Amino acid sequence: MTQRELNYTSGNDYVLEFLGYRFAFASDDFRERVTAAAVKLDLITDSDLDDDEALDLVELAADNRIEEPRSSLGKYLMRHWERLSLNEGESLVYWLRKLVFRGAYLDHRVKEELLEVSFDEATGDFGYAEPEGGRTLLELAPTPSWRALQFRRQ
Questions:
Q1: The pTM is what?
Q2: How far is C-alpha 133 from the geometric centre of its chain's CA atoms?
Q3: Which comes out higher in pLDDT, residue 4 or 147?
Q4: Rounded Cα–Cα distance for residues 88 and 23 (Å)
Q5: Structural domain boundaries of the chain?
């Protein structure tokens, strides 16, 4: 039996470590994952971001800051950072990264045939199950919400 690859790789544009894992992402992959994480956290309403908005969000997730905002989203994040950075004790950057890694980890486990994917048409959600049965705990873990501080386009 061959040793399974433990770290996710889709490219080398963004290389991050999280909870002992080292994941490398292609730009488009990382952008899509960060945007999806921001939607899941209710920071933004949908994933339809322009290039500058996405770049600001990607910079925040990758570098833990936005050096010079490019968009109204980036300016909003910088202007309200004291309120946004921690929400009821939860770190926005931590949760963006956690959801990016969670998704990549799940995708990697599917690729390695350690998880099976199902789609629930009633809820519109994907589910992950161990091949022997049961659901993975990762997808069941609750996430905090930034809905009260959500970015809204003017």
A1: 0.84
A2: 26
A3: 147
A4: 28
A5: 14-149
